[in-house]
Specification:
It is an enzyme of class 3 (hydrolase). It comes from Ramlibacter humi. Its EC number is 3.5.1.4. This is Amidase. The protein is an alpha/beta fold and 442 residues long. The chain has 2 domains: 4-222, Amidase signature (AS) domain (Amidase signature (AS) enzymes, Alpha-Beta Complex), CATH 3.90.1300.10; 234-287 and 335-441, Amidase signature (AS) domain (Amidase signature (AS) enzymes), CATH 3.90.1300.10. Helices cover 39% and strands 13% of the residues. The chain contains 15 helices and 11 strands. It has helices at residues 4-12, 18-29, 46-54, 95-102, 147-155, 171-177, 211-222, 251-266, 282-285, 290-307, 313-319, 327-347, 366-369, 376-395, 424-438; strands at 38-41, 63-67, 106-111, 160-164, 180-183, 204-208, 237-241, 270-274, 353-357, 399-404, 414-419. The chain has an 11-stranded mixed beta sheet with strand order 1-3-2-4-6-5-10-11-9-7-8, sandwiched between helices. Helix 8 (251-266) links the parallel strand 7 and strand 8 (270-274). Helix 2 packs antiparallel against helix 3 and helix 7 (211-222) runs antiparallel to helix 15. The chain is globular and about 55 Å long. The N and C termini lie close together (12 Å). The mean pLDDT is 96.
């Protein structure tokens, strides 16, 4: 499947048109592969596709999907819920959507998501759960919360899937669906017009089909130019954190991860194992529910009082953990996080990036974690595993890239490259080199 940049080149040569690409994407949104992936499609955007290709804008009129978390002018923003179904239409596009439009994107539709973005699994009891396109035999979770966004990119219904990442909501579905997800440093992209989960941790970012597409998407969303040094792997220094982040890997993930490390070492990369003991402190730091519980409850408390019965019970339970957090505990958490960030950044100084499995498991069957109290234990166990590695980067206020590292024909496994705040260009630059080294395996 061609990525966005390759398609742009083809359009420039007169091979096809953005309107044709948009029509194909729109048809895909209605296919069985995209069942439950879209909450609304936007066929009226077809005219914009031809116009923006002619204007030679960066996204060339090509189809992009929008997570149901973001305002689109004239439409309600329900965040995958039913309790906001009658919300007034947005008066303007969110800042992220406006930037995508300005760059020439044609919006193919609004994508399904975990209700209010509060889970890494991607299950939605109101609108159904889109199945992971990587396995047509067993319906598997797509990952969340940006579930529909991932499916839209993996099936070819969009070149870019706009989403958000508070604890891994871009990187988890990217890893499970076999595509690329980039979580930038949070301050680089605007949150205006996006329904919040955690104002401290929320990041606006996207999924794509390649790392070079991720670079382009980030440049559009952050309104900045990525500086690439194009250093070869032989000049790269990576760390592998052994503390907790490699625990509990299933055999497929362990094999893919070790194979990726061998390939990168064979290409000349320096890879050093380190103990990052500060990782063990995260459980204590977030024992009261962390920023997400406190900040989501602050936003939801009035809506819960009015329409709490309409919430996904699993989401409601996690939001209501914020009731118990006291003001002094929140202030202590802010201070403790700052100290923790300084400790971790010091340990990572001198490395281009840390290498870890994005998530320690491959996608489980939807049936194992589907809505129902009898499956709550399995759901929360899977959710905790999926979020464990990715949430470290959000607490670090860092940046991270997930790209596929699995063998052909097997369930997708994501390799994560991550670092602290404002190392975005280095992580993307290294990601291009890593992707090129691993590409023959796909």
């Amino acid at each position: 499947m061609d990525d966005l940049i390759a398609t742009r080149v083809q359009l420039g040569r007169g091979q096809g048109s953005a309107a044709e690409a948009f029509s194909a994407a729109l048809a895909m949104t209605q296919s069985p592969a995209c069942r439950h992936a879209f909450l609304r499609t936007l066929p009226e955007e077809a005219q914009a596709a031809s116009r923006d290709q002619a204007r030679q804008l960066p996204l060339a009129g090509l189809p992009v999907s929008i997570k149901d978390l973001f305002d689109i002018e004239g439409q309600p923003t329900a965040a995958g819920s039913t309790v906001l179904a009658d919300a007034p239409p947005a008066r303007a596009d969110s800042a992220a959507v406006a930037r995508l439009r300005a760059a020439g994107a044609s919006l193919v539709g609004r994508t399904n998501m975990t209700e209010f973005a509060f889970s890494g699994v991607g299950v939605n009891p109101h609108h159904g759960t889109p199945a992971n396109p990587a396995d047509t035999a067993v319906p598997r979770i797509p990952g969340g919360s940006s579930s529909g966004a991932a499916v839209s990119v993996a099936t070819g219904a969009a070149f870019i899937g706009l989403g958000s990442d508070t604890g891994g909501s871009i990187r988890i579905p990217a890893a499970l669906c076999g595509i690329v997800g980039f979580k930038n440093t949070a301050r680089l992209t605007p949150l205006e017009g996006a329904l919040p989960l955690s104002t401290t941790l929320d990041t606006v970012c996207a999924m794509t089909r390649s790392v070079r597409d991720a670079v382009l998407a980030h440049e559009v969303l952050a309104n900045r130019r990525v500086v690439l040094e194009n250093k070869p792997l032989a000049q790269r220094r990576f760390a592998v954190v052994r503390t907790q982040l490699l625990d509990g890997m299933d055999s497929a993930v362990a094999q893919a991860f070790e194979a990726a490390l061998r390939t990168l070492r064979g290409a000349g990369a320096s890879i050093e194992e380190i103990e990052l003991e500060a990782i063990r402190d995260l459980g204590t730091l977030q024992s009261m529910g962390g920023f997400t519980a406190a900040e989501s409850y602050a936003w939801h408390r009035q809506l819960l009082a009015r329409a709490g019965e309409g919430y996904d019970p699993r989401v409601r339970a996690r939001i209501e953990r914020g009731v118990a957090m006291k003001a002094w505990e929140y202030v202590d958490l802010v201070r403790a996080r700052a100290g923790w960030i300084a400790k971790v950044e010091g340990a990572l100084r001198g490395y281009d990036a840390v290498l870890t499995p994005t998530v320690p498991i491959t996608a489980p069957a939807i049936a194992d974690v589907a809505p129902g109290a009898e499956r709550d234990e399995a759901f929360f166990r899977v959710n905790a595993l999926l979020l464990r590695n990715t949430s470290v980067v959000n607490m670090l206020d860092g940046c991270a890239l997930s790209l596929p590292c699995h063998a052909p024909g097997s369930l997708p496994v994501g390799l994560s490259l991550w670092h602290g705040a404002m190392h975005d260009d280095t992580v993307l630059d290294a990601g291009l080199a890593v992707e090129a080294a691993l590409q023959p395996r796909h």
